[in-house]
Every structure is written in structure tokens, then in C-alpha cells.
């Protein structure tokens, strides 16, 4: 099996689309890489206003179950008020 190399935002986008089988909208996508593999890929709807703290705790809880994870990649996919193209930012 060839190693998976994720080095650029474009690599992440390719991986997300391939892994999920669709292009998510209004979503947070979390990928947990480990030394020789990629762990679970999580896609959740973005939080509603005033629910950010419970949302962050929920996502952290999900990611915390992957005890072999060595990090996390996050992609936020959202519309610009519904008037522009999808804007992906990597943090």
C-alpha cells in the first residue's frame, strides 16, 4: 500500500472528497493522522450561534476516542452568506 502524503490544502481537499464520497457544505471536517495511517474522518454540521462551547466539547470528545492519533487536521467548509463560492480555510 502506498503511503498517504497530505502536505498541502489541495491534498486535504482531495482526501476529504474521496473519503466522504461527497463535498460537504456548512461543515467542520476533522482528520486524525497517525504514523502509518489516517484515523477516522469526522464531518459535522457547523454550530448554531451560542452553542460553540458545547460544540467544541462534542468534537473534542469524538476525536479523543482515537487514542493513536498524533494530531488533527481541520477544514471548515462554508458559504459566504449564500452569495459566493464555497470557502475552505485550514487552521
Write a concise synopsis of the structure shown.
The protein is of the alpha+beta class and 91 residues long.
How far apart, in Å, are the first and last alpha carbons? 29 Å
Element order: H for helix, E for strand: HEEHEE
Mean pLDDT: 79
Count of alpha/pi helices: 2
What's the helical proportion of residues? Answer: 25-40%
Major sheet size, sense and barrel closure:
4 strands, antiparallel
Could you tell me the radius of gyration in angstroms? 14 Å
- Strand percentage: 25-35%
Strand order of the largest sheet: 2-1-3-4
Q: Globular, elongated, flat, extended or rod-shaped: what is the shape?
A: globular
Parts with pLDDT < 50 across at least 5 consecutive residues: 84-91
**Which structural class do you get from the secondary structure elements?**
alpha+beta
Number of strands: 4
Task: Offer a few descriptive terms.
four-stranded antiparallel β-sheet; globular; disordered C terminus; alpha+beta; single chain; 91 residues
Strands, helices and their partners?
Layout: H1 9-20, E1 27-33, E2 38-45, H2 52-64, E3 73-78, E4 87-90
Antiparallel strand pairs: 1-2, 1-3, 3-4
